[in-house]
Design brief:
heterodimer; A: 97 residues; mainly alpha; 0% strand; B: 233 residues; 2 domains
């Protein structure tokens, strides 16, 4: 029941944009908004992925991982290294703490 | 005749732009595949623990294809929550795919069923990889990254649902930190543009303020609304 409802709802949510507007130029007003959707959504995803937890928001080892990723970005490291820096730092922090 | 042969996508044997982007998308998805595989197995086994059969778990991964919503639904069911609560949480978490789908729509053409299917390859990570940073999207990168992540996610769900225990806890390997790092890395170059930086700061702020009290998923949609600033040039 849950599987069917959640599955169908997600398929529909993901399909509505492409099916209704696919291959067409979006109206200028919508385009103005979707242009800025990426920075807004990416920033929100960074925050939620770093602090959200089952028992409410928490600053934990993931924040150290993100800090490591930030340092890697400042050093102009390639994407793979940025992701690896975050994962390794978080893993090490969990091992120690 | 010669014009035709030279207009082909594989002129001089070099891969064309389309193939190269497809390949770039697949390559960009490789480090994330490790994280997807780890969490896919965990999802499969937690679905099993919550009383969801292997076939149903795989169907859920194949149709929902969005880790956070699936984990939310299964953990609510596993904790004895109602079906309605599980569905509501998952739908709220996936509501962001409405605007996300709209943002990629201009590059997804063809018959309605093709647009519907291509839309399913959109997940936060493939969407972020396909984003050119100027509001437009590269369909080939979306396809490459989306297909790799989709296959890994569905396969690893099946592995977990059939009872394989995880070799190592993905969290012990820090794999959960791979996702915010990816999003930050993809956001980074966009911050040079002032308006994008303002909207990003606003989005992050809204998410941070709402996280403690709003149901999961709501802070993300609320933050996405920050992009409406773009309408008011």
């Amino acid at each position: 029941m849950v599987v069917i409802t959640v599955g169908a709802a997600t398929v529909a949510l993901k399909a509505v944009g492409p099916v209704l507007m696919g291959g067409r130029q979006l109206p200028a007003v919508v385009l103005g908004a979707t242009r800025l959707l990426a920075p807004a959504l990416l920033a929100a995803l960074v925050i939620t992925q770093v602090v959200a937890g089952p028992d409410g928001p928490a600053v934990d080892e993931r924040s150290l991982g993100l800090a490591a990723a930030l340092v890697a970005l400042l050093l102009r490291a390639p994407m793979l290294l940025v992701i690896a820096a975050a994962a390794v730092t978080t893993a090490l922090a969990r091992l120690i703490m | 005749m010669s014009a035709m042969t030279h207009a082909g996508p594989c002129r001089d044997g070099l891969p064309g732009r389309g193939h190269r982007s497809l390949w770039e998308g697949m390559l960009a998805a490789v480090p994330l595949s490790v994280a997807f595989a780890g969490f896919g197995v965990v999802f499969g086994s937690s679905a099993r623990a919550a009383g969801i059969g292997p076939a149903a778990a795989v169907v859920l991964s194949a149709t929902a294809f969005a880790g956070s919503a699936q984990f939310a639904a299964v953990s609510i069911l596993g904790a004895g929550g109602s079906v309605a609560a599980a569905v509501a949480a998952a739908v709220l978490l996936n509501a962001r795919y409405g605007p996300i789908g709209l943002s990629v729509a201009p590059v997804v053409g063809g018959a309605w069923w093709r647009r519907l299917l291509l839309g399913q390859l959109v997940v936060d990570e493939s969407w972020a990889i396909a984003n050119r940073g100027n509001g437009s999207f590269d369909l080939q990168r979306l396809l490459g990254a989306g297909a790799v992540l989709y296959l890994v996610w569905v396969t690893s769900t099946a592995v977990g649902a059939l009872g394989a225990s995880v070799l190592a806890d993905p969290k012990a390997l820090g794999l959960d930190a791979a996702f915010p790092a990816l999003f930050l890395a993809l956001l980074w170059p966009q911050l040079r543009e002032r308006r994008a930086a303002v909207v990003a700061a606003l989005g992050a702020g809204i998410a941070l303020v709402m996280l403690p009290f709003a149901p999961a998923g709501v802070p993300i949609i609320a933050a996405a609304a920050a992009c409406l600033l773009g309408v008011r040039r």
